[in-house]
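Protein data:
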Amino acid sequence: MKIIIRKCNVEVTIGDLLREQNRIIFDGYFDGKEIGVLNDNDIVNVLEICTIEYLDKPKDKWGNPQGELWYKIKKTVVTGWIHISLTDLGRYTDPYYNNRYEIIEKIESSGKKWTIRRMDQTISIWERLNVRDRPGLGGKKLFLLHDFEEGTRNPQENYTVIAMTEETETIDGKTDHWLKIEYIPGKYGWVFGGYASVERGGPKYYIPENTVIFDLSWY
């Protein structure tokens, strides 16, 4: 098996997204003894994330490994581990899957400094939107999404996001990140995320912090 432990710093209010069987606090992530339990509206700090990949078992059809996911949490005077993965199926969603959200580079554009982080997800665009060569409105326009006569095509277009800015910007009253997408096969550029949406439950972006909150908080 492969074990990776990463530091984390997220405060969460426990809610109905955390299943009853995952609320037991153990003193360790392997053969630990029970030292407490989490209840609705408990406020906890998530200190570490531990992923355990079973190397001898195949990944599922989405490429997710089989294994275990543990969060090290602190609740008032109790510090221990809770088991988040679907223990009956051996599957879990790793907040850092495929090196998601690691820093790729830092660039300057539109008079700002941007920290670029790796992403791996799909977003939908429903309207005309400029694709630029760099994040920010000062980026050169490369392409126009939905550049066709209204009513001649499906208004929804889906794109793969391969990177995003850590920083946000407010445009037309919308505060969001800039997203690097593959707008046509083999061609990449930046769009403002305020005009992107997702068709699923959960957080808009699979940022590790958002994933942790979605695992533990209220629906």
Q: What stands out?
A: The chain has two domains: 2-94, 99-197.
